[in-house]
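Entry 14. Structure prediction run on the chain below.
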Amino acid sequence: MSATTTARTGATANAPAPAHLARRSESPGVRIFRRTFRNRGAQFGTVILLLLVAASLAAPLLTSYDPNAIDPTNTLQPPSWAHPMGTDNIGRDVFARFLYGGQLSLRVGLIAIALGATVGVTIGLFAGYYGGWLDAGSSWLTDVLLSFPDILLALAIIAVLGPGITNAMLAIGIAFIPSFMRLTRGNVLAIREMGYVEAARAIGVRDGQILLRHILPNALRTLLVLLTVGIGAAILAGAALSFLGLGAQPPTPEWGAMLNAGQKFIRQAWWLTVFPGLGIFLTVLAINLIGDAIGDAVAGTAPAGSKGGE
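Output returned:
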């Protein structure tokens, strides 16, 4: 072999793989992440969400006011340098209450959707895989629960458990269980018929390993969309319950509760409702933009049947 041929062969061997081949070697999770944050809406939503989360977590650094400290001599003051979002009817700093209220509102959404997803996905996973009486019973329960709007179901649960932020989170989480059950069951029914699942059964792989390594990872791709958008819906439901007086109780700062307290003064003190309402609006909008981008990214990836567990 000539030196020229050898040099060409070495150069070819050391050359990087083409971009399309490199992308094929990416895991589905990496592809979904890359496609999601290539979306302008997701980029905008992420920036807004990160700013709100960072501001809420950094509340002690951003304000020196106690969110529950009363100052009767400084009531219903409009936004100023001293009080960037004004004060309420008993002199509390609205900016401090907005920041600390954001912590609680975000926590309600995360905890509630984590509860709904954990229970719903677990039941849907076993019901879809094993079928039989478990599938029939869970499907019947799902149909019954889905016949109620989420907020109405949450209200019914609150009526039994009583008002309070902990019960509100529990009620919202229970209200989201049927949606996760239905979607997980549908995914599992399709995935369990795939060739790689049949092959795993044929070589004696245990059901637990099949569920955790092959079926659940592939089912989670589509569940990501419901999980993301569900956080925004849970935050909105939590704010609605607090607005109705069934969630966070006074004097606890929470965006929905702040809206409820400010509605009496909406004509003379617009800031009492505008700022907490804006917090809810921007948070839910940001989460929905990210969820839509994830949905587009999931739809653009390869079907979940090529290899299990990847």
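The two ends are 42 Å apart (CA to CA).
Filed with the rest of this week's runs.
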